Amino acid sequence: MKKILFYIPSLAPSGGIERVVTTIINNLYDKFEITILTNDDKEPFYSINNRVKHDFLKSYIPLDMNSRVKRVFSQFKKIYISSKKLSVYLNDNNFDYVYITHPISHLELLLSKYDFNKIIISEHGASNNYNNIYKWIKKLTYKKCKYYCVPTKSDCEFYEKLGFPVIYTPHYRPDLNYQKANLDSKIVLNIGRYTDDKKQLRLLKIWNSIDLSVREEWKLNIVGSGELYMKLDSFINEHDLTSSVFLIEPQKDISAIYKDSAIFALTSRSEGFGMVLLEAAGFGLPLISFNCPSGPRDIINHSNGFLIENNNDELYRENLVKMMEDKNILETLSQGSKQLCLDWSNEKINRIWMEIFK
User: Fold this and answer.
1) DSSP states of 209-236 as a string?
2) Burial of 176 per CB tally in 10 Å (0-12, 13-18, 19+)
3) CA distance 354 to 166
4) Distance CA 56, CA 127 (A)
5) Which of 83, 183, 250, 333 is the most buried (most CB within 10 A)?
6) What is the DSSP string of 116-146?
7) How many CA atoms, within 13 angstroms, populate the side-chain half-sphere of residue 289?
8) Would you give the DSSP letter of residue 151?
C-alpha cells in the first residue's frame, strides 16, 4: 500500500480548505496509508478517520497582522525552521508522495531537498487569489512537482498555458447528512469566513436594499468567523437589521443549518472552487452567486440557480428577490440542484486520485 503524507499548515480552522482536505483524506484512507503532518499541534476541526496518523512538526509561528515587516520576518523564520525539521522528518519516514496545498509548504519542501517528483500540489484558491509574493513563488517553483491538481476547468486551462503539470481534480461532495431543504423556512443562507474575499458586507448591503415588504418574513443567516466580524456586526446594528440578520458561529455538523434554509447566497469576489455551493446543492438548495473566479460557474447552471455577472449588485438583488417571492421558482431550482449532485460522482473522483497516486 502506497504511503502518502498530507503536509498542511493546520487543520484546526473551520474553513473550506480544511474541509476539502479532510474530505479527500476520508475518501482515500482505506486505499493508501495516510499520515497528516501539520505545522501546529492542534487537532483538526473536522472529523478524520482514526486510521489516519497525525504528526506535528511544531514549527508554527504566529503572524503579527498589525505589522507587515514583523509578519514577513516571522514568515521567513517559519520557512527556515520548517524546512530544517522537514528534512529530518522525511529522512526518518519514507513516503511515496507528499501532498501540499500552499506555496509556502512547497518552498519548504524544496528547501528540505525533497524529491520534487514525489510532490503533489493541490490548489484551493482561484488563480487570482494570492498576493504578489505567493504568485511569484508559484510561478518560480510550481513546475517542480509531479502533478498540480486544480479543481476548476477555467483555472486548469490557465495553468496549462503556463506549462504546469496540471490535472483537473474536481472536489468530492462532502459526507454530510443530506436531506431535503425546507424551502418554506424563509431563510437565506451564506457560509464562509468573515473576510474581504467572501464579501459578506456586500451581501448585507444587498439585503438592506431589498424592500422591507419582501424581506420582512425572511431571515439571513451568515455562518462563519473571522477578522471582519465587528464590521458585519456594526452594519447590522447601524441599519436596524438585528431582527432579520444573524451571525452564526461555525458548526462541525453543518447539515441542520443547510436543511433549515431555503436559498443559498454567495457574494464572494473569489473562490477556488466553492465547496459550500456543492454542499448546498446536496440539500436541494437553490443557488445564487456572482460569477467570480473560478468555482461557481462549474456548479451553478440555469436549472439550479442564478450566476450573476461580477459587480452587478442590482441584478443580484433582483434575482434574489425573484427567488424569495416565488415558491415555484425555488422548487424548480431545487430539483436542478439535486440533479447536479446525482451527476457528481465521488467514485469518478476516486479514480482520478488513484491514478495520481499510482
Assistant:
1) HS-HHHHTT-EEEEE--STTHHHHHHHH
2) middle
3) 16
4) 29
5) 333
6) GGGEEEE--S-TT-S-HHHHHHHHHHTTSSS
7) 34
8) S
Angle between the 68-92 and 103-111 helix axes, to the nearest 10 degrees?
50
Residue 132 C-beta-side C-alpha neighbours within 13 Å: 0
Alpha carbon distance 135, 143 (integer Å): 13
DSSP output for 296-335: HHHH--TTTEEEEPTT-HHHHHHHHHHHHH-HHHHHHHHH
Pairing relationship of beta strands 53-56 and 245-248 according to DSSP bridges: unpaired
Q: How many Å apart are CA 172 and CA 340, to the nearest integer?
A: 13
CB-side neighbour CA atoms (13 Å) of 271: 29
Provide the greatest CA pair distance for the chain: 66
- What pLDDT, on a 0 to 100 scale, did the predictor assign at position 16? 83
Quote the pLDDT of residue 67: 81
Q: What is the mean pLDDT of the chain?
A: 94
67-114 per-position pLDDT tens digit = 878 888 888 899 999 999 999 999 999 999 999 999 999 999 999 999
Residue 258: name the closest of 291, 225, 229, 287 by CA: 287
pTM for this predicted structure: 0.83
pLDDT for 71 equals 82
CA atoms within 13 A on the CB side of 25: 30
* CB count in 10 Å sphere of residue 28: 21
Other beta carbons within 10 Å of 260: 15
The rounded percent of the chain whose pLDDT value lies above 90 is 79
Beta carbons of 160 and 148 less than 8 angstroms apart: no
Other beta carbons less than 10 A from residue 6's beta carbon: 26
What pLDDT, on a 0 to 100 scale, did the predictor assign at position 80?
A: 95
Residue 174 · residue 205 · CB < 8 Å? no
pLDDT-derived band at 43, boundaries 50, 70, 90: very high
For residue 239, give the nearest of 201, 191, 288 by alpha carbon.
201
- DSSP letters spanning 41-78: -PPPSS---TTSEEEE--------TT-HHHHHHHHHHH
pLDDT in tens, 187-229: 999 999 999 999 999 999 999 999 999 999 999 999 999 999 9
